[in-house]
């Protein structure tokens, strides 16, 4: 079932590799590794720019991934048009220095 975000409907999120997804568990990406993230979404507004952010969620709060390119137009088609379904694809590299 699609999820609603403030300015879009998220239809599907795919993370590869993510063996835990088959059991409906959060993905565990090891430090020093990479993961491919794809998000199918339909914006509810049109715009020239788009920002993408990824966070690591733990007991202490949300920690943003430092060094991530947040210009989402580099990873999907811009300008975005309301009602046009599209895909955002990002290659996430998790530094070995990232906190445990």
Strand order of the largest sheet: 1-2-3-6
- What's the architecture in CATH terms? Sandwich
The CATH topology turns out to be: Immunoglobulin-like
Number of domains: 1
Shape: globular
The top-level CATH class is Mainly Beta
Rg is 14 Å
Briefly note the structural class of the backbone. mainly beta
- What characterizes the major β-sheet? 4 strands, antiparallel
What count of helical segments does DSSP give? Answer: 0
Structure description:
- The chain is mostly beta strands and 100 residues long.
- The protein has one domain (3-93): Immunoglobulin-like (Sandwich), CATH 2.60.40.
- Helices cover 0% and strands 38% of the residues.
- It contains no helices and six strands.
- It has a four-stranded antiparallel beta sheet with strand order 1-2-3-6, with no helix packed on it. It has a two-stranded antiparallel ribbon with strand order 4-5.
- A hairpin with a 2-residue loop joins β4 and β5 (61-64).
- The N and C termini lie far apart (32 Å).
- InterPro entries: Ig_E-set, ML_dom.
- Residues 8-99 form the MD-2-related lipid-recognition domain.
- This is MD-2-related lipid-recognition domain-containing protein.
- Keywords: Secreted.
- Belongs to the NPC2 family.
